[in-house]
Write a structure and sequence with these properties.
The chain is mainly beta. It is built from 2 helices and 10 strands; from the N terminus they run αββββββββαββ. It has one domain: PCu(A)C copper chaperone (Immunoglobulin-like), CATH 2.60.40.1890. The protein binds copper (II) ion. Copper (II) ion binds next to β8.
């Protein structure tokens, strides 16, 4: 009879372990760069930001393959989509903040041709708690309508 007492206790302990499990790791994924189809125009990048165990701000993003990089937010004012620079992105513990079309995004000027050929570039995310995270982003080239872009002849990446 007494043994039954340990069952609910064990269940509670397991639940507590699950709630502070792998979910609460400061990280980012699903990073993609969309190269502008118009030469000279900025390209745009999106990713998902995942919060860790403590609240932080993403205070900067850099990349060796980009001349200039800004964090932007698209907001709607009087039915007009407006884009303005953001100084930081607040990320609560365990939260997911999406950088996506129509919302927060990265604006990139001068993405290197080498990176475009390679099909990827690396971002360095800088957080308010001094954490640094490196993340690889897939580069999507624009595909102009009516143009056949077959890249079967290109060497496949070694990764
Ligand atoms: Cu923008």
């Amino acid at each position: 009879m007494l043994k039954q007492l340990s069952i609910p206790f064990a269940a509670t302990a397991a639940l507590m372990l699950a709630s502070c499990g792998q979910g609460d790791v400061l990280r980012a994924d699903n990073a993609v760069v969309k190269v502008s189809p118009v030469e000279g125009n900025p390209s745009v990048a999106y990713m998902d930001l995942h919060g860790g165990r403590v609240e932080v701000d993403l205070v900067g993003v850099t990349s060796d393959d980009v001349v200039r990089l800004e964090m932007h937010e698209t907001t709607e004012e009087d039915g007009m989509a407006m884009m303005k620079p953001m100084k930081s992105v607040n990320i609560l513990p365990g939260a997911k903040v999406k950088m996506e079309p129509g919302g927060k995004h990265l604006m990139l000027w001068g993405v290197s041709e080498t990176a475009i050929k390679r099909g990827s570039l690396q971002f360095k995310l800088i957080y308010s708690n001094d954490d640094r995270i490196l993340i690889d982003a897939r580069i999507e080239k624009p595909t102009p309508a009516g143009t056949e872009t077959t890249e079967a002849g290109e060497e496949s990446d070694a990764e």
